[in-house]
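Data availability excerpt. The first of two example chains:
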Amino acid sequence: MSRIGVIGAGSWGTALAVLLDNNGHDVTLWSVIEEEVEMLRTFREHKRKLPGIHLNESIKITHDLKNAIRGKELLVMAVPSKYVRTTAHSMVDYTSEEQIIVNAAKGLEDNTLFTLLQVIEDEIKSGSFAVLSGPSHAEEVARELPTTCVVGSENQSVAEKVQDIFMNKTFRVYTSTDVIGIEMGGSLKNVIALAAGISDGLGYGDNTKAALMTRGITEITRLGEAMGAKRETFNGLSGIGDLIVTCTSRHSRNRKAGLLIGKGCSLEQALEEVNMVVEGVYTAQAAIHMAKKVNVELPIIQQVNDVLFHDKEPRSAVDELMLRDKKEEHVD
């Protein structure tokens, strides 16, 4: 049994707390929102984000960050990407170099162009670090539907320890040392899922979505390799696996936001309707800034940016993608 602090009580943090508790670990779940803590304590259920999922009494729920961190062997960071730096900064006084910190969020920081694990390392500095990613909607993990993920760490023994802690008969975990590849795949697939949702909202078909996903993984791989990732990582769970589920699932908030935009909603209206953090919106601009830095072309992600932030009509964006200069498929 390991003592674990889950930092962030949204849908993913709550689902992971349930998973780890079911694995027999001593779990403390933390939220910065006092009303959320009170709801979880009172009802033992996240009424809004994971309705119907019961939290055992063995899961301790707290608003006290020190209590969630001190004495824990493993910390799981499951806060939205835009809050990762501020949360990590708040954690510094309570962490120790003996702890393993696992990033379970997905995204890029726009001003630094850091991955989220790099953000955490930049703030906390000491300890061991890993990332958990893959096709894993919280709604299904919490209901113990078979799911497979990958945990990445530059230290293979750390990856294997995290693998042992998370793995069970419905949650299979692989290991990898390609941390940058795992994080790039998990972040950029959200932008392609926005494009897939926009396509659905416009009434385009399966052919269109298949093209977006196929060319989308090409863009993700192209940028990932330029940042030092391994090509094969994008053929795995945190690449094509996560892209498939996020572009096609009814649980995908990125696809839903894109769907609403394709139907004519503004970005602000779409975000209000989804009423959850849409990570792809925050990642889209960072991806373009990163691509310019390493001189990589990302036509789909560029068009998503133009639709989100420059009032481009979605149909015009699709037209431009279809009418680009002729190319060979496997030549960048």
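And the second chain:
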Amino acid sequence: MQKMIFRENDRGHVDFGWLKSAHSFSFGQYFDPDKMSFGALRVLNDDQVEGGQGFDRHDHNNMEIVSIPLEGALAHQDSMGNGRTIETGDVQIMSAGKGVQHAEFNADQKDPVKFLQIWVIPNERDLESRYDQKSYLQLDKHNRFATIVSPDNADLNAVHIHQDAYFNLADIDLGRKIEYTVHSEKNGLYLFVLEGKVLVENETLSRRDAIGLYQTEKIEIEACFDAKLLLIEVPMY
């Protein structure tokens, strides 16, 4: 097994007033040659957008873009004709493919919206652009992982991604242990602690810490406090 530790205070932090963001990997004005990606996982931005503010229309191509609100709601518009709002408990994916323009704004004029913006490199280039969103509130993630992003079109509980990648959420009670088995030996695991504290492979991870693991078939996670987790499985290039 190989492992890489990513501490919260080692992330790149930017503050534009209307936008506060922490970058797990090189993005925009933050550049670290040792933090370009974790396999096909290219971007993980922990964003906070103030009320009434947002990102004006801009271009994307050949990237799978996943957004997960943590607090508040995010309004989305794109050149495919989608005009939707995603709220806490939703997951959104935009497959940029051949190219798409979109804009994102805080749906509230007063309170900030907090969300994760995650980019995954697709398994094919120049695919038709596509948009989808789903609620995961009906899924059982209490002391177990629930899949919210999957390459399997037959998984009706998850949005579909053009990559052999899986996004999973779990809420773990203090003292409980859960396991995760990797789908493919070509894949690695990126565990991001949303809240709480956990023990993974003899490493203690606190809020917004992460660990990357590969060349392993299975991992065990123990909650040192009540914890909320995001586990991303992606191919290691």
